[in-house]
Automatic annotation (TrEMBL):
GO terms for biological process: lysine biosynthetic process via diaminopimelate. The gene is dapF. The record marks 166, 215 as: Could be important to modulate the pK values of the two catalytic cysteine residues. The lineage of its organism: Bacteria, Pseudomonadati, Pseudomonadota, Alphaproteobacteria, Hyphomicrobiales. Its EC number is 5.1.1.7. Its main location: cytoplasm. Homodimer. It comes from the Bacteria. One of its GO terms (molecular function) is diaminopimelate epimerase activity. It is an enzyme of class 5 (isomerase). It comes from Microbaculum marinum. GO terms for cellular component: cytosol. PROSITE patterns: DAP_EPIMERASE (PS01326). It is found in: Cytoplasm. This is Diaminopimelate epimerase.
Length: 288
């Protein structure tokens, strides 16, 4: 049997590298090993691969599975959702699109000026919802630290679930830490049974946060949409900012609004198409 021929589109959301693979009309099983193999190739390298599958619910454009570079799955990816929303809007001619993920429905719409807004849903703050390995009554700051108790390097992160688990450490200068060294250690801390995305956040104004992120399963990235949402809601819960903030990542700014009326978090930002091509047939042969 000949290998299936599968088109990919390479995009990015603020430099968060996104590979879009549309399997709505094809049946191919993507194993973690195959995902890692695709990520290892320079032309198809990604932080997240957004795999579009046939819609499961009426009124949605696709059911989406999201893979990290290491082959693990995530239920949410804000930057990737803007990318697939742009493709769906181009395909349908509409100015909105809705996707289903394992974290729920993600409605998105054209916000003008080349920007797309995604309704990322309501954050969760319960310790078992994040999830954490043991009970914490107050997830605005949990007892977790790196370094000695008397002089920790990082401590007392806020935690939140934005469709995926996030820990946010509040610092005075996001550039003063070796996140490439601290990230892997914190991502896999036993307090996070499903690992976690690790952020360093610096509040710069009542409506401004600077953020660097070590992503679960992907490492340092230029931007992480769900982390920006998690940092924004965590800052508002602590009274550090209001409910509308600009979160500035290495790749650029995202506008985050934590809507009062339904608790949903709206994320607005750009997307970019880079190139397209066909996935290497040899590897797909083993997966078909
Ligand atoms: N970059 C994404 C988040 C990707 C998921 C994450 N690495 C995880 O495993 O939870 C975004 O823009 O939200």
């Amino acid at each position: 049997m000949s290998a299936p021929s599968i088109r990919y589109r390479k995009m990015n959301g603020l430099g968060n590298e996104i590979l879009v693979v549309d399997l709505r009309a094809q049946s191919v099983s993507l194993t973690p090993a195959l995902v890692r193999e695709i990520a290892a190739r320079p032309d198809t390298h990604f932080d997240q691969m957004m795999v579009l599958l046939r819609p499961r619910s009426h009124g949605t454009d696709a059911y989406v599975r999201i893979f990290n570079t290491d082959g693990s799955l995530s239920a949410a990816c804000g930057n990737g959702t803007r990318c697939i929303a742009a493709l769906a809007m181009e395909e349908t001619g509409r100015s909105e699109a809705t996707f289903e993920t394992d974290a729920g429905l993600l409605p998105s719409w054209d916000a003008g000026d080349g920007l797309i807004t995604v309704d990322m849903g309501a954050p969760k703050f319960g310790w078992s919802e994040i999830p954490l390995a043991r009970e914490f009554a107050d997830t605005r700051a949990i007892d977790l630290r790196v370094g000695p108790a008397e002089a920790p390097i990082l401590s007392q992160p806020s935690v939140a679930n934005m469709g995926n688990p996030h820990a946010i450490f509040w610092v005075d200068d996001v550039g003063a830490y070796d996140l490439a060294r601290l990230g892997p250690q914190l991502e896999t801390d036993p307090v996070f049974p499903e690992r976690a995305n690790i952020s360093l956040a610096q509040v710069t104004a009542p409506d401004g946060i600077t953020l660097r992120v070590w992503e679960r399963g992907a490492g340092l990235t230029r931007a992480c949409g769900s982390a920006a949402c998690a940092a924004a809601v965590a800052a508002a819960r602590l009274g550090l900012t209001g409910r509308s903030v600009t979160v500035t990542l290495p790749g650029g700014p995202l506008l985050i609004e934590w809507r009062e009326r339904d608790d949903h978090v709206l994320m607005t930002g750009p997307w970019e198409f880079e190139h397209e091509g066909m996935l290497p047939a040899g590897s797909l042969e083993t997966a078909a």
